[in-house]
Specification:
The protein is of the alpha+beta class and 107 residues long. The chain has six helices and three strands.
Length: 107
């Protein structure tokens, strides 16, 4: 079988940048779940099996800082917070679904 040579650019590596944004263990499941629409924090926490509150907060902050999702806070007691994918986040969905299909076939 012939080996394919992958050309590596001497410029900034975009793959590394992508992994910095969505490379966390929980980032892709969060994006996939939010593809179904807006969700509150507790809904996300209940939906993602195995994630703890601290890690969910960390991943949500990272995704928000990178423009993948938006966070909307409502002035209620206790405060209500809703998360929603941005257009940038929506554009990740085909890639995430493709990885999911690959994982079902080979992992």
């Amino acid at each position: 079988m012939a080996k394919k040579n992958i050309e590596v650019s001497s410029h900034k590596c975009s793959l590394k940048d992508v992994l910095d944004v969505i490379g966390g263990k929980w980032a892709m499941p969060i994006i996939y779940i939010l593809s179904k629409g807006k969700m509150r924090f507790k809904e996300l926490e209940r939906t993602i099996e195995g994630i703890n509150t601290r890690m969910l907060v960390k991943e949500l902050k990272n995704l928000e800082a990178n423009g993948i999702l938006t966070r909307e806070v409502f002035a209620t007691v206790p405060p209500t917070v809703e998360y929603q994918l941005t257009e940038k986040g929506d554009r990740l969905l085909p890639s995430i679904k493709s990885l999911h299909q690959w994982g079902e076939a080979y992992a």
